[in-house]
Write a structure and sequence with these properties.
The chain contains one helix and 24 strands. By secondary structure, it is mostly beta strands. The chain has one domain: Sandwich (Jelly Rolls), CATH 2.60.120. The chain has a seven-stranded mixed sheet, covered by helices on one side. A seven-stranded antiparallel sheet has the order 2-21-18-23-15-14-13. Strand 13 and strand 14 form a beta hairpin. The longest helix is centred in the first third of the chain and has 8 residues. The two termini are about 35 Å apart.
């Protein structure tokens, strides 16, 4: 498990391109046949991936967690962005098609991930936060998500937000999770930008053509920076940072948050005219 530490907001602006990418961009996910995990000090979140090929892969607690099993004091959200697969939680089996979601609450002991066909393996994205309360394992297909249509063609941001783990959907302790799909011709997400000092956030960009990129904008509203992001790359967004993107073509991204509350619209606006 990699360990990441977020720079102080007064110090991040001193970093060059390589320093920013090492601190905030995760390029090491979705290795076939592996479970890859990254621990960040931003609300003690863990993001990762599992791509089973030859057989099932178990999720275990690395030594850094000082736990008997991964979800001993944590909750976990799973989004499949690949081929069909299966997740097993304490003997229960949950089929996972593309863009299906699974929530495993605190106290879930045995978690394993498998693909139905090695030629088209599942690609499970994982996001975990500490949990002080237990909630039941819940499986949701894409048809079960709560869709919200936003944006306009004139602003190049027509998109659909699918909410999975949130107060009106899958219940959790603090994790909120879903994904946003941009329509063809749309390139902007989360603009006007915002911060939410009560929560950190993680973005995973996917279904992006190999020749295309997303310019992910980050930093304090008065001193922004950008990261050039490719398919299946993730960005760690601390509470003080905006998180917005503009792509060279349409894309999809998974968003997940954890912190003081679960109010999706608890945002501190950063209007376009205010950004620097």
């Amino acid at each position: 498990m990699q360990l990441r530490y977020s720079p102080h907001p007064n110090d991040y602006s001193k970093l060059g391109t390589d320093g920013l990418r090492r601190a905030f961009l995760v390029e090491s996910l979705f290795t076939p046949g592996q479970c890859d995990l990254v621990y960040t000090d931003a609300d003690r979140a863990i993001l990762g991936s599992v791509v089973p090929v030859a057989g099932p892969i178990r999720l275990v607690a690395d030594a850094e967690l000082r736990a008997a099993y991964f979800c001993e004091r944590r909750e976990l959200g799973v989004l499949n962005i690949g081929g069909s697969g299966v997740v097993t939680v304490d003997g229960g089996t949950y089929p996972m098609g593309k863009l299906d979601c699974l929530y495993a609450g605190r106290g879930s002991r045995e978690l394993a991930f498998a693909s139905l066909t090695p030629e088209d393996p599942a690609a499970f994205f994982l996001l975990s936060y500490p949990a002080h309360a237990a909630h039941p394992v819940t499986h949701a297909r894409m048809a079960d998500a709560t869709p919200v249509e936003l944006g306009a063609a004139a602003d190049a941001n027509r998109r659909t937000i699918y909410k999975y783990i949130h107060p009106g959907g899958i219940q959790s302790c603090q994790l909120v999770m879903g994904f946003t799909k941009l329509q063809e011709g749309a390139v902007w997400n989360t603009m006007p930008a915002h911060t939410h000092t009560r929560r950190s956030e993680v973005y995973l960009y996917f279904d992006l053509d190999a020749k295309r990129r997303v310019m992910h904008f980050m930093g304090t509203p008065q001193e922004t920076r950008h990261l050039v992001v490719a398919d299946r790359h993730a960005v760690i967004s601390p509470s003080w940072s905006i998180h917005s993107g503009c792509g060279t073509g349409a894309y999809t991204f998974c968003w997940g948050m954890g912190g003081e509350n679960q109010a999706f619209d608890d945002m501190d606006p950063a209007p376009v005219h205010f950004l620097r």
